[in-house]
Amino acid sequence: MTKPSAKPAKTSKAKAPAGGDERPLRRVLGFVIRRIATAPMAFAFLWPALLAVGGYWAWQQWGVEHVGKQFARLETSEIHLTDRPDYIPERVDLTREVLESTALGDLSLLDRQVSARIAQAYATNAWIEQVLAVRVRSGGAVDVQVRYRRPVAMVRHWSRHADVQGWAYYPVDPQGIVLPPSAFTAEDAAAYLVINIPEVDLRGTPGFSCGDSRVTAAANLAAVLAPYRRQLGLAAIELHAENNPNQRFLAFDIVMQSGRRMVWGSAPGEELQGEPAAKYKLQALLQSPPGGTDLRVAAVPVVHRAAEAGGE
Predict the structure, then answer these.
(1) Contacting residues for 262 by C-beta, under 8 A, at least 6 apart
(2) How far is CA 303 from the centre of its chain?
(3) Which of 88, 157, 211, 241 has its C-alpha lying 20 to 30 A from 151's C-alpha?
(4) What is the CA radius of gyration of the chain?
(5) pLDDT per residue as tens digits for the range 177-221
(6) Where would I find the H helices in 106-212?
(7) pTM here?
(8) What is the distance between the alpha carbons of residues 208 and 205, in angstroms, rounded to a whole number?
């Protein structure tokens, strides 16, 4: 009698879901969502704040440098300077000169220091005595308020420059600051008083002092006389022949276009004790005194008349 053969028991196998088991991922996401939902309200503002701070930092570090230079570049054609006076020749292009000597054209309007940088750039120009204000307006326009330097005389000197050999002239303002000689033609220079100082040497560059105290003092005098140059026929300012050899005390002569010469004396504000002030000398000069007049003496009656009028 044979025993029936035992059949192997069947075992059931569970099939793995396609794509792997997603239950751990779902558990993690569910945990994060539940945490955010149950977090205090203060955390609701944390991420927006972090995004804002991070965005600002990224813009300052990268955006201004790269994007700003392309889309917010300073257009020099939009720079508006204070109306230039007539004494600056029309051929002078101040903004072009500033562009050639500075990095003004590379500035961005998004630069937080753009106003200060524009002011610094224009302050380097020899024609500009002071930058008063810079205002950047909407649309990219820029207003630059400046005070210009004013030429009052041409200093005659012996030039050893390769391009100019012989007698030449360079303009100065009332403080003896040198202005660009190349801006003036011979016709322009003829409209100014001439300062004749023996053995004067041009040591200053445009925008800086001439480096000669005699020229500075003469320029101060020229500023007083310049408004009356045509009316009185004034031609030049020269050192007086009786100047102290050590030149500690300077005295000047005024030379007329007719060749007449008068003694002016000390520069304005540097008068010696007992010497009339410049305003009294000028009053005496306006009375057309004869050649050879010493205004230091001729002005004394004017001083007395002024004092008597004040006493009344």
Answers:
(1) 253, 254, 256, 285, 289, 291, 292, 293, 294, 295
(2) 42
(3) 241
(4) 40
(5) 999 998 998 888 899 999 999 888 766 789 999 989 999 999 999
(6) 114-123, 186-189
(7) 0.73
(8) 6
